[in-house]
């Protein structure tokens, strides 16, 4: 059974198993300052951020360490208790985290074209006879997880508002794969017929040689979604947050590393950038009630 994000967060409030650390002071530069990541492609995904983490440590003179939990609710719980100080969150998870934790958005991730965001797509396996969404009725559909923006929130609104279908009646089955990588491989291997994923994460798997673009047909594409953000606890010293932000943006010079991340770099941002996600959340609730 998949718990919704708010129920997960309440459960995690009583669990202290993910992180053993406490909040660190900027003055003590021998301490680790932890950055939380949620694997978007499956286990081990955090490794692709190690070069960025090393860069942040060199530029600031602070020892940064990347840590992970299995889902966004664990990251939100850790931020709430000061067990991590920074985190990379998707747009939806950032908005939800801001409801429970005193955090602020510092930098937004650009796509490979330099646009301030990315796109959600609905994909099917090439050669299986599904070349348009009109042919998707009575098929097996996969979201990624309930806290995902492009893997759940955006396609949920797209299906009901734009495509005029009620997912649980339109599809043969609705599934949650757990990650974008699992959804992509699930379509390729025939576990699912249709899946909602992010363009950048499909590109990453192509870059790694795990799939090729010709494996899939893109049935629908969303409007531009604000990119994932790096956020920080508001209680951190201003200098630490500013140094982190500047060091992150200076990583834009490392084009080779950005290519591995399927990323076009970073730009400064703030909370208002993600108001569109709040609007989509509200719209989804309204559509669900109808």
Give a description of the structure.
- The protein is an alpha/beta fold.
- It folds into two domains: 5-114 and 227-275, Periplasmic binding protein-like II (D-Maltodextrin-Binding Protein, domain 2, 3-Layer(aba) Sandwich), CATH 3.40.190.10; 120-223, Periplasmic binding protein-like II (D-Maltodextrin-Binding Protein, domain 2, 3-Layer(aba) Sandwich).
- Helix content is 38%, strand content 21%.
- It has a six-stranded mixed beta sheet with strand order 2-1-3-12-4-13, with helices on both faces. The chain has a five-stranded mixed beta sheet with strand order 8-7-9-6-10. It has a two-stranded antiparallel ribbon with strand order 5-11.
- The longest helix is centred in the C-terminal third of the chain and has 15 residues, at 275-289.
- Residues 9-25 have low confidence and may be disordered.
CATH architecture type of the largest domain: 3-Layer(aba) Sandwich
Largest sheet: 6 strands, mixed
Order of helices and strands: HEHEHEHEEEEHHEHEHEEEHHEH
> CATH class of the largest domain, please?
Alpha Beta
Task: Specify the structural class.
Answer: alpha/beta
Termini separation (Å)? 24 Å
Query: Unreliable segments (pLDDT under 50, ≥5 consecutive)?
Result: 9-25
Overall domain count = 2
Radius of gyration, CA atoms, in whole angstroms: 19 Å
Shape: globular
Strand content: 15-25%
CATH superfamily of the largest domain: Periplasmic binding protein-like II
What's the assembly state of these chains? Answer: single chain
Transmembrane segments: 9-27
Keywords: Membrane, Signal, Transmembrane, Transmembrane helix
GO biological process, one term: transmembrane transport
Protein name: Phosphonates-binding periplasmic protein
